[in-house]
Amino acid sequence: QVQLVESGGGSVQAGGSLRLSCATSGLLDSSYRMGWFRQAPGKEREGVASFYRGIATYLGSVRGRFTISQDNAKNTLYLQMNSLKPEDTAMYYCAAGRPRGGLWYSRSEYNYWGQGTQVTVSS
C-alpha cells in the first residue's frame, strides 16, 4: 500500500521560505514520477514541479524560486520554496505515478496522492 504524507506547510511573509516534505512508503521505486501540485481556493489543481530519473521540471511561475529533490535513503520528496509570494498560497499535494505518456503536470499521470499541507503567504 503506497502512502504519501506531506508536512512542512505554514504561514510566512512574502519573501520568506518553506521546505515541504513528503514521506513515502510502499512500493515506490525509480519507475515512478514524483510531483508536487497545489490548489488555491476556487482554482484548479496545478502541477508545480516533478522529479523523474534525476530530471526536475517546474511550473514557469516558480522556476528559479522552488527546488524539488528526492532523498531515496529517507524515502522522502522535498520542495524547497524561496522568495515566496502571496500568489503561492495554496494547499500543496505530493503525488506519485508511473508515466503513461502524458504531460508531467497532468493529474491523470499520478495515481497516488497525499492529504495536502497548507501554505499561506502574507504580503
Overview of the structural elements:
The protein has 123 residues and is mainly β. It contains no helices and eleven strands. The chain has strands at 3-7, 10-13, 18-25, 33-39, 46-52, 55-58, 66-71, 76-81, 90-97, 112-113, 117-122. Strands 2, 4, 5, 6, 9, 10 and 11 form a seven-stranded mixed sheet that branches. Strand 4 (33-39) and strand 5 form a beta hairpin. It is globular and about 40 Å long. The termini are far apart. The mean pLDDT is 96.
Q: What is the number of beta strands?
A: 11
The succession of helices and strands, N to C, reads EEEEEEEEEEE
Number of helices in the DSSP assignment: 0
Average pLDDT, rounded to a whole number, is 96
**Span between N and C termini?**
41 Å
Low-confidence stretches: none
The coarse overall form would be globular
Class by alpha and beta content: mainly beta
Estimate the helix proportion, in percent.
under 10%
- Major sheet, described briefly? 7 strands, mixed
Percentage of residues in DSSP E strands: over 45%
Radius of gyration: 13 Å
List the helices and strands and how they pair.
Layout: E1 3-7, E2 10-13, E3 18-25, E4 33-39, E5 46-52, E6 55-58, E7 66-71, E8 76-81, E9 90-97, E10 112-113, E11 117-122
Parallel strand pairs: 2-11
Antiparallel strand pairs: 1-3, 3-8, 4-5, 4-9, 5-6, 7-8, 9-10, 9-11
List key phrases describing it.
mainly beta; 123 residues; four-stranded antiparallel beta sheet
